[in-house]
Queue: 2 jobs
Job 1
Amino acid sequence: MSKPLKAVVIGGTGAVGREVVGQLLNSAKYGSVVTVGRRGTEVPASYSSQAGYDGSKLKQVVVDMDKLEEQARDAFAGADSVFCCLGTTRGVAGSADQFRKVDRDYVAATSQAAKSAGTPFFALVSAQGARPNVWASDFKPLHGLLYMKTKGQAEELVKGQRFPCTAILRPGMLERGDLARGMEKLFSKLVTSVSVAKVASVMIKEAENFHERHTAAAASGEPIVSVFEMGDIQNPRDGRQLVVIAAGPRPEPPMRNFQSSNSSNGVPYSSTSSVASSTTVAVPLATPVAAPVTPVSYRVTWWQAMRFNGVPERVNGRLAMMAFLYIARREMETGLTVIQQAQQIPQDWSTWPFIALCLLFVYAAFPPALVGAKEEDFGIFRVAAEKTNGRAAMLGLAVLAALEWHSGFCFF
């Protein structure tokens, strides 16, 4: 990497985008930083006061995002790295369609503009749990599913461009500093989170590593896709990255005719930008990329999911914890033992909502297991603790029923 690099930042007004711009202006490896968006970017004061800061490198281009490819063509010309930090909320966007437009359609247009300009490196800020094929609905209470689906679709559209190197970051809860709202500050203390500055630094470091060490590997023609999950962002491995190697040639997707859909289940891009299966391996940055490898499926069969210490125990444990609390409350209200409460279920309509909730929990536990989802800790919630509590609740229910059957009296 001999000459200064040129970077283009899309979404530079957001929490992550501002950090990317600030860090690039302090990087000696980048000689030009161009922001493209609906308005200019305000660089955080913490960066402008640093010794290596050079504000003269910054050029801001204001465009109509609906005409991004046309109006930002000159801005993308000669770019070595493009950092896409686009993202909004449904509340800010105003509707599900507008949310998809920003988080999917604008990302697609950005990747098309970068591809047309011959940009070798493209970085995208996605989200933890992004999955293009998850079932979703425009129904607002189910927006979490739409969010994961839209982010996953955006990832596939970017990968479909086959840049020499693509970096996809999937952070969870973000620590947004002075941009954080009250509830965000609260939840960032309760669950695992990562600072927006850390996300930005991982993106830029990956770009610099590519330009320094992977130029020869990229010339082989096989694209590199690096996927950074939450743990990889929090604790990046020194000198290593996650590399996804394509399983075979894929057709170039016609991105220009991308259409929004009112239904998040009928995805227009699926027929034009299908991405071949891939597998993830860890290799040193200096190691040349190996030949395409056989794709690996993480899906499991029904019988595998039903193994000992699998879904059944998890479901039974969760149901036991819920049932123990429910039964204890009902005993205090009605004076009925566990067995007496069970005998009255057919006639007692008040218990049916609880039973429906239990069935919903059972149903929700199976889809993640069947697609091979990994059990992970989430903030104060620990996988091992849930199993221990579930086993204790199952044993507790059995002991409670036995004691009450033997004595004939309620325990609570």
Note: The first helix runs from residue 15 to 25.
Job 2
Amino acid sequence: MQSTVNYLWHTDDLLGQGATASVYKARNKKSGELVAVKVFNTASYLRPREVQVREFEVLRKLNHQNIVKLFAVEETGASRQKVLVMEYCSSGSLLSVLESPENAFGLPEEEFLVVLRCVVAGMNHLRENGIVHRDIKPGNIMRLLGEEGQSIYKLTDFGAARELDDDEKFISVYGTEEYLHPDMYERAVLRKPQQKAFGVTVDLWSIGVTLYHAATGSLPFVPFGGPRRNKEIMYRITTEKPAGAIAGTQRGLQSQLVPILANVLEVEQAKCWGFDQFFAETSDILQRAVVHVFSLPQAALHHVYIHAHNTVAIFLEAVYKQTNVAPQHQEYLFEGHLCVLEPNLSAQHIAHTTASSPLTLFSMASETPKGLAFRDPALDIPKFVPKVDLQADYNTAKGAMGAGYQALRLARALLAGQELMLRGLHWFVEMLQATCRRTLEVTRTSLLFLSSSLGPESDKADDGADAVRAVQEEEVFPRGRNGLRHGRAPVKQLQRRGAAGSATLLL
């Protein structure tokens, strides 16, 4: 057991360990409140005095819900080691979340947006106070659950942090190699002598790698054998890649995110965005509302992100980019009713949707349905190596578990899609039937009116009504092997015919 004046902990309750300190779960001696204590080791005291106190000074300056709070600075009894008493985050770190097999292919979109919002807010507070972190990575982003069960992410570990204005530079090297800016990587990992100075944008590179890792479950730049086994190739990948190049399929949220990551993962600091532009672009994403659209031709659910002040025309264009259904051919159903979206209206008029209650999109164009497109999870199942290797076997088993969870996620998406597909087709057939009934009723009324006007010719008119009814039914539900697809397009045609029949009655 170890303790300070007000806090007590057991060395078995280790939360994390670094080169200069260890972090433990501790309790307040009086209240029993759980806290995290950072206990500095003897190696930490070999650093210059100003470096030793820098973390205390930085944390005292910060006060934000997305930054771990500092409660007190105390000392252990006998050894008089410095101890930082901080807020305890019970749900581990973002790294532990990403290490879970169900997130092997990235966080769910909703959870990723929570990470993005929290990291951006925390970093914005750092820059407002002129602080550069210098060691942004998933392991230094803690997670706890709010009162309503929502995730809250907080930046932590300010051992490498220091005050630095936008136009200032530093030459000391800190950080974790997978998340280091290439210029720092060259000097810290490859041990190549160079006298480059670094600015605040090195944090942007680390943020870009972290966000990519959270979105996809993997690092953006990985050489064969891994980044720690092939360091020279790792450096060449990051420095020789084309400007703006980044892996990732551009769909939904990713189409908004990829340009941001591409512009912060730039080696040349002159080409890299500054924090002002990064905050502006990420805020643009976070201020958008999501509209859930289920495409019947694709049998797929899409997330369309738009601003409330956008017009419906912008929404229709965004749907076109994801579904290839042109705006003039888009028709929507919502909760069983035809939903008419006027292009000039504000997007605020679009109904509130959820994943289980989306807008249902069908196309008025005679196109062949594209069907589902997904990657077979079996392709991601790794192979076990013949020789016994505990670490390799662990990684392989973890990869297999990740592929299993991906297959489960895909199966759930397919089942949900099947339900939405059946429901959408049911609504579509009901709409067709209602339109046909209205059109036939108008036609019948028109013929009755004509028969009363023609007198002796009424018998012929009755025969004509039967013929028209047969023709109408054959047009709406034509016979053939393709079944319902033949009766899909004429909704507007039937509406026009109904209007023409009404005009005949008025005459």
Note: The chain has three domains: 1-88, 90-287, 289-363.
